[in-house]
Amino acid sequence: MPALALVLLAAVPAALGQTFQRLGACPDLGCVFPPDQAHFLPGQAFDVRVEIHAPVNGTEAFNGGVPDPDFSISVASNSHPDGRPLTEFFGLAEEPPLETWDFAWYEDLFARDAGNASVVNVASKAYRHLALYEPGNYTVELRYYNGTRTTLAEWFVRPLAEEKKAKNVILFIGDGMTTNMITAARLLGHKSINGKYQSRMQMDQFPILGHQMTHSVDTFITDSANSASALYSGHKGTSDSMGVYSDSSADDFDDPKVETIVEMVVRIWGSAWGAVTTAALDDATPAALTGHTRSRSNAGSLIDQALNGMTNYSWSGHPGPDVYFGGGASTFLPGPASYEGKDYYDEFRKQGYSVSWNATSLRDAPVDAPALGVFSTSHLPVWLDRNILTDNIAALETHPSGDGSAPLDLPGLKDMTLKAVVGRPLLSLSSLPFSPRSPAFPVKL
């Protein structure tokens, strides 16, 4: 008997297989985005998306595949504990239109291998460009299917800082620089005797150190898109997404958005902003500063969003970056990789930018005008290749002009950073080539 029990227990995991989620952060057949446990800064702009799911087949099949179009959503707060309809709570003039679509997913590996997709019909509404100003707790209640089902989302608005402490902020991000990478650098760079380091990394001498957990809403293994979005907005998304909570629609750009710190400081303080990277400028870490999309692969659109903001939905307008240095010329050159096939070198020039393709032109670029520097068709070569193994660069065909030559005169991270901050006056909105694309969003500070 013990042997039989052992055999049965060993067989159970093989029979279960890997299961998947119908939609990340959606606990039931009713979905609220932002989801439960979302935190906001006071005045931070965001969209709300509500979805009602009616699975047609599979283990969750419900209501004959007909989603409830008559759902209701209310919001309760410290000052309104009884709750109000969402449109009334946010002072909206009318309800947004009802949207419908369907999507398919696989419940587990067995269904995927067999090609047995589960189809889900959806009824949805999107409430655009909202904000909460009162610190405290909020409860969002979605009722559907004649009140027989309820989905709750608990939100929290952080206390408002009473004093502006920082004039300028420079955020250094080591992409993928996890604790084990920091430990490896410490071991390689600093001598240890009897377990005691004889010198310390500058990072170890910071007055304040902390950890941020940037895994996604639906997996513990993150990627640089949604982890960068967590850094810049304080909101977790699904892997590959940035600046949004991923919904189930087919459109990569209609997902409910959350405002990033760049968009907030530009809107509230009129601050200048910029990005300096050794990666491509359309790479997720720099692109997530202003990018809003379910898929980081929309590289050309992310460059357009950095320059022009999100223009296809009502959203916070912002000027282009004051400085924008890195790689990724493939999304600037006219062709299939750029947004709508446009020449984004020209698009930046039209808005008053100097354009640099090498270290020499970067040094000569004026500091009293916005500057674009693109130095490779892809990511920039690493320090070792630029300074020691220079023959490796001579063999490359990644010149930012797209002519297939080698990018021989390359700046490093230090060169680009110094050019970005030394001697450059901080420009205000009024001095940048910028005209708001939507009415000014009210700031209640």
From TrEMBL:
Active site as annotated: S224
A Pfam family that the UniProt record links to this protein: Alk_phosphatase
Top-rank lineage group of the source organism: Eukaryota
InterPro entries tied to this protein: Alkaline_phosphatase, Alkaline_phosphatase_core_sf
Protein residues bound to Mg(2+): D175, D283, T285
Name of the top EC class for this enzyme: hydrolase
Signal peptide, first to last residue: 1-17
Details of cofactor binding: Binds 1 Mg(2+) ion.
GO MF assignments: alkaline phosphatase activity; metal ion binding
Cofactor or coenzyme needed: Mg(2+); Zn(2+)
EC number: 3.1.3.1
Keywords assigned: Magnesium, Metal-binding, Signal, Zinc
SMART domains associated with the record: alkPPc
Protein family per UniProt: Belongs to the alkaline phosphatase family.
UniProt cross-references to PANTHER family, sorted A to Z: ALKALINE PHOSPHATASE (PTHR11596:SF72)
Name listed for the protein in its UniProt record: alkaline phosphatase
